[in-house]
């Protein structure tokens, strides 16, 4: 029986992902690294330091800097990102999300944020939807980033639910892989080929309808049972 929903943040509830990618791209350029569109896109859904290490790997600079320097780079990127966050308003909530959250509340479902972003509380506050969520996973307390299932397992634990009682939402391949590794029902938002591991896929958030998702979730659970 469905009892809770778990959401990634960037690219799912709001398009703050574009701010992240722009900030990473600027940093990469400062380091003399030119990222392809595919390389930049691969940074979606993974933690700050994992993203930085991946950029350095792409630029064949993974052994060029100390951990202290890397932390300084990550902090610089975050400052630029936060400048953009300050401009966010409820108008930046993606289409269909307000209705989805309202339907979930009416259905009595618990909700949790499972984002690699340490800025999730601030972003939710700017969007005016922080009160909608019962829990937010603190990524600083996690040992492993997506595609490891730890963040989704933690979200499930915070909601005090079992893996067959939750539906989780992602827009990145690493996130979908994390959900499935946690043995949860995965809703993918975006390209079908990239998110093919998900149980239910829509092209955009405006296509997210709770009743339709729940119908597929119930069928899926019957098959598993």
TrEMBL record:
Binding sites annotated in the UniProt record for substrate = 8-10, 24, 43-48, 51, 77, 115-119, 146
Note how many cofactor molecules are bound and how.
Binds 2 magnesium ions per subunit.
| InterPro entries assigned | B-phosphoglucomutase_hydrolase, Beta-PGM, Beta-PGM-like, HAD-like_sf, HAD-SF_hydro_IA, HAD_sf, PGP-like_dom2
User: What residues bind Mg(2+), as annotated?
Assistant: 8, 10, 170-171
Q: Which family does it belong to?
A: Belongs to the HAD-like hydrolase superfamily. CbbY/CbbZ/Gph/YieH family.
Q: Note whether Isomerase occurs among the keywords.
A: yes
Cofactor(s) annotated in UniProt: Mg(2+)
This entry's Enzyme Commission designation comes to 5.4.2.6
> Tell me, which GO biological process terms does this entry list?
carbohydrate metabolic process
Task: Give the matching Pfam families.
Answer: Hydrolase (PF00702)
| Swiss-Prot/TrEMBL catalytic activity | beta-D-glucose 1-phosphate = beta-D-glucose 6-phosphate
Q: Which organism is it from?
A: Lactobacillus kullabergensis
SUPFAM superfamilies per record:
HAD-like (SSF56784)
User: Which UniProt key words apply to this protein?
Assistant: Carbohydrate metabolism, Isomerase, Magnesium, Metal-binding, Phosphoprotein
Protein name per UniProt: Beta-phosphoglucomutase
Stretches of the chain forming a coiled coil according to its record? none
